[in-house]
Amino acid sequence: MKKVIIIAVCLFFAFSGCALRKEIVIPRAKLQESVARKFPYEKDVGIARFTMETPEVYFKGKNIGLKAVYSANLLEKEIRGSVDVNGHVIYKPETGTVYLHDFVISDITVNEKDLLEKVKVQKIIDKIISNYLDGFRIYRLNPRDHKQNLARLYVKDIFVRNDDLVVVLGY
What we know:
By secondary structure, this protein is α+β, with helices and mostly antiparallel strands.
């Protein structure tokens, strides 16, 4: 009888020390599909009309980025270019959603040659893009899928590995 109790206690401690750790890999193509649904983005503010389209999701180190093409009509002047936004990934368990957070505009091109005007245009475009991308949803776990709905409660970490977003589940 003592041996059974000792074995049961040993098994209990062995299994209670083991934590579940599972990785869910979300390929860049799936993120690209999720982000592409939110474009084109258009903003009309009286004297200016701004459009951002053809987003491309990419990974850089531990960050996630978006490259997009924009066009703007500012005071009857047409401006075209591209913008490259790079930021961290955060996860909100209450909604099961992955967001772009603490992003910075790492590169912006403008078709104008006047450097002084380029700086002004960059500030305007930066403000418009910042307003749109603040809390930009990259991916959301499906609340109707039982496994994904359960998984959202056990997310421990999210990081970028190679060309994938990795979600680590555990308890």
